[in-house]
Structure prediction request, 572 residues.
Amino acid sequence: MTGATISFEGVGKSYAGGGKGQVTALSDVTLSVAPGEICGIIGRSGAGKSTLLRMVNGLERPSTGTVTVGGRDVGRARGAALRAIRRDVGMIFQHFNLLSSRTVHGNIALPLEIAGVPSAEIGPRVRDLIARVGLEAQADRYPAELSGGQKQRVGIARALATQPKVLLSDEATSALDPETTRTVLELLRDINRDLGLTILLITHEMAVVRDIATHMAVIDQGRIVEAGATYDIFVTPQHPTTRSFLSGVTGITLPGFIAGRLTEARPHGPAEEIVRITFAGAHATDPMLARMTAERGIAINILAGAIEEIGPRPFGNLLVAIDAARGPEARDYLNRHGLSTEVLGYVG
Amino acid sequence: MSANLIGLLVEATLQTLYMVSVSALLGTVFGLPLGVFLATSQRGELLSAPLVNKALGLVVNAARSVPFIILVVAIIPFTRALVGTSIGTDAAIVPLTIAATPFIARLVENAIREVDAGLIEAARAMGATPLQIIRKVLLREALPGIALGLTLAVVSLIGYSAMVGAVGGEGLGDLGIRYGYQRFMPDVMLAVVVILIVLVQIVQSAGEWIAARVDRRAPRNRGH
Ligand SMILES: Nc1ncnc2c1ncn2[C@@H]1O[C@H](COP(=O)(O)OP(=O)(O)OP(=O)(O)O)[C@@H](O)[C@H]1O
Ligand SMILES: [Mg+2]
Prediction:
């Protein structure tokens, strides 16, 4: 089994809004997810993430543009053709959406029954799936008797039952605590590695993207504002929305005495510019900052710093203070040398 | 109470049970699919047919607005055409079924609308057809609610079946009126009332027991 390509071309979606004309949920979205990729889509509430995801299995149809999975046009498929595509696309949900009336075994069997798999084959296949998600001891329990993490494992096993080429995840870990989130994401990563299927997941947590996604896209007000390899976007974020998501996930924060005095506008008189510098690798900046000080005579004050990892690759984050009068010049210098900078504010 | 009277009570009880069970069965046969359709045919729903939904909704509401006793009298010609007579237990089954069908349909509709929309979505995402979703998801998940609804319907039918006694039916209501009221035999009246109370209790307890047996939701999600 291998993954399929998911592709959005010029996709737009509007809803007939209640009273105030049309609601545009998505505009001109073009995005391609290669087979076997784990692509994370991040955006704020109402940005259009669910709408985008639900187009991949035809739960929503695009108003304009084309959505294809493995070359098949989902938006124009109807009836049996659409149901065939859906069997190739598994989906997991924030609130699990398990049948309360069926056991773990029964829930995982449901997609197989729906697909018309002979009942003699269903039993063994369900037992394999239960073993894959590690729920052997819970096979005969009902969802009401399971923890959130166990329910999501059932959801994952159910989504894999028809051996899909694509897995969609709509905030699948948002209802789980951090530790359970970690184990569920690990399971998804294992599945991606073992089965090679393409995973498209949406989230509003950058940590989820960092921990699992090879690629990512940032969606803001229905538009993709940034897309690419996760590492590249973490190291050189371009769009303000991306940066604000990143500032929530990096392990460093401003010291309290500075955070409390931070202003958005540059105050009159002498002030310091507070800047976040992001760089690839673990050690790349030290010589750069020293060289800038030597060449330009700009002094830089390091306030905090940390090295993080995306997959096996480290990247660094520094919070620094620069004399506000020299700030633009310093940032320009650093940018030209491949470092990404973001002004967080000013301290008078 | 004489052996003769006891024989009459037994016979009347059996007649009531016959009328109630046949009309409950027929009411379910007609009301269940109707309720499923009403619950799934608004605009954008599984069987989306908004006009038919509206029309059937109106018919159901109209049928439910007619007081039962008036319904019985109003459909006498129809009853006669169907069973050849307008008196007796078989004749009583016609208005009972006509009253039960829209009632059961609404109860089933409500029970199905209680099912989490996320489950329909999950089933659609699996590639289920609308009929598969109805059979494997909606009906099964709504079963506790449907069981309680049918219990309510049967209890109401026991009451209605006593009412048809007044207009030419048979059964406990008829016995109560003829002996208890017209011949002024309070012991017969009392016996009829006690039997009706016991019947309702048995039906209610059995219905709740079945509903609890098929309900696998966490206790906090149960609607009672
Ligand atoms: N069926 C609908 N009818 C009308 N408007 C809708 C519908 N579905 C979504 N929308 C609107 O489209 C926009 C995008 O919604 P969507 O659910 O895709 O956002 P989201 O990014 O998933 O948000 P969240 O993080 O809160 O789940 C919102 O403004 C929403 O109100
Ligand atoms: Mg959403």
Chain B has a mean pLDDT of 93. The domain at 3-214 of chain B is CATH 1.10.3720.10 (MetI-like fold). The CA atoms of residues 1 and 187 of chain B lie 8 Å apart. Residues A 49-50 surround magnesium ion (ligand 2) (CB under 6 Å).
